[in-house]
Amino acid sequence: MDGEVLRILQEAGVADAFHAISRPMPGLRLVDADLRTMAEFRRDARVGPSGHPEASMFDQPALERVLLAAVEADPRVTVHRGAEVTAVEHRPNGVTVRWQDDTGAHRTQARAVLGCDGAGSTVRAALDIGVRDLGYTEPWLVVDVRSSRPLPMWDGVHQVCDSQRAATFMHLVGDRYRWEFRVLDTDDIEHLTSPAGVHELIAPWMRASGHDDIEIVRCVTYTFRARVAERWRERRVFLLGDAAHQTPPFIGQGLGAGLRDAHNLVWKLERVLRGDADDTLLDTYQAERERHAVKQIRAAIMVGWALTGGNGHTAALRRQVVRALCRIPAVSKAALSSTSPRLRLDGRRRPSVVGRQCPQSRTEAGWFDDRLGDGFALVTLDPQQPMPRDVTVVAVRPNDPVGRWLIRHRVRTVLVRPDKVVCATGRTWLDLEER
Question: One Pfam match, by short name (predicted)?
Fold first, then answer.
């Protein structure tokens, strides 16, 4: 989980609960097939520009329990467990969702439907929406274990750069550890997923730890894919997360991408349903998020090839190139960067803060986002200028973290959307208005 996405959890009111079940991730280590270190990228900063750790390790079921508890505590939300959606139908005033559970068949009328139902999305199939393949399909084995004693390994992520059996190893939190192994064409899946097969795969780590007192919590094969849905919206039905796009896991943006989707869409949908914005605002959801998601998917494919692709002389050459690149400071910085690609809101290719999240920090008075509020906000170094109505004005000083950020980017005033993305810059409010 990167800091930008953790900020979304903060807005949802569960950041403190997430911090209680997570830990900052200290960096990345590239190792060869014999687990010898090729390069190491350490992350020394504990807090990034979003006010949270730039990367955090956690066990996803623990986060799901936190989110479910928050949802069930909200009186505005009704949760139906064990329900299967069977049809999604457009209606003049919204959408009809047909579903069934142990009590029989049901029908729900909705003003909008958000299909967050995974790679095999029922909602996507109901709308007959196709997917575009970005050229990556590989089966991998994911193994989660509990260890009665800490494994004596570095606490960051280990990427095994082996053209044959590429793998990833990481300590999650507490007594939980994870391995991911590429599945080979010659593998016997039944043996590979058996306790004996798993112990054979993780044997090098167990030898290093001096014990094998572990409990296999989960052993599942997944097919990592790179795909994007052709349409993310049809009238008032939307696709989010894996229903809209799937990525290989090499830069850890699967869950985060889904949360970014929701954060981008819901403030727009709220304004349209409330009558404060035209329906065309909803078209910007895919227009903004698809380019961003595809960029991250292609980055994951490239990283995956760099770490695991090729064989023979190609693999040896790749190892030499990786070692050489790792000695370049800019490469090291890029390897640890959690900053996502900026949204293209202004059509400009040159560097700009437009399309990036406004940074935030935490003081004794609270989070900077609390000052921004839930609507549009004007963040400015010049609070004396005439201000618009219905926009929260947040004055910052030149020595504040956000003030220094404005000065560094040579702007005096920025307009921030409800999702905390900068949508315009200028010296004064009048400059913004003219844009």
Answer: FAD_binding_3
